[in-house]
Amino acid sequence: MSHNKHSLCTQHHKPLSTNNYPLSAINHTLPTKHHPITIIHNPPSTIDNPTGTTVIELIIAVSVALIISTMVLAAYLIIFKEFNLFTRKADSVMETIVLKKKIDALFTDVMTVTEKYKTTMEYTDSENNDHVLTFRNGSIYLGNTVKTSGLKSFNYSISEKRGAGGRYLLLWDAVLVNKHWIGGAKEVNVK
Asked: pTM for the complete prediction?
C-alpha cells in the first residue's frame, strides 16, 4: 500500500497532511475502504460572511449595552436621591424630638413664675432657687448657659384661668430652624 501526502495512515486514521488548511476545511468523515478521506483544496469562502455584518452586530451590541447601563444608572440615581431625602427627613424628625425633650426638661423644674417678659421669664424651682430663662439668637439660655439652640422663634404664655388644682398653665411653642413646630405645657404657680 503506497502513501501519498493526502492519504490516511491506516493504523491511526489520521490525515498525514492538511496542506496548512484550517480544520474546518477538512471533511470529517471516517475513512473506509470505499470512501477515503478527502481534503478540500479551497479555503472556506468569505463571501457568505462579509465583515460588514460584524460591524452592525457590534454597533447593536454597544447600543444595547449603553441603553441598559443608562437605565441602571438612572435607577441608581433615583434610589440614591430618595435615600438621601429619607435620611434628611429622619434626621429632621430626630432633631425635633431631641429639641422638644430638651425644652420640656427646662420647664420640669419651674414651680412658680415670678416675672415674665416677651423673651425672658424668671422663676423659682422646687428648692426655691431663682432662675432666669431667656430666648435670644435662636437659643434658650438658663442664666448665661445655652440649654438648647436651633430655634427660629420661641414663645410662652401663662393661661388666664386657673386649673382644677388652683395652678396656671405655662404654655410654650417654638418653630425650629428645620421649620417644624413644637409645643408643650406645664402647671405652675404665678406670683
From this structure: 0.57
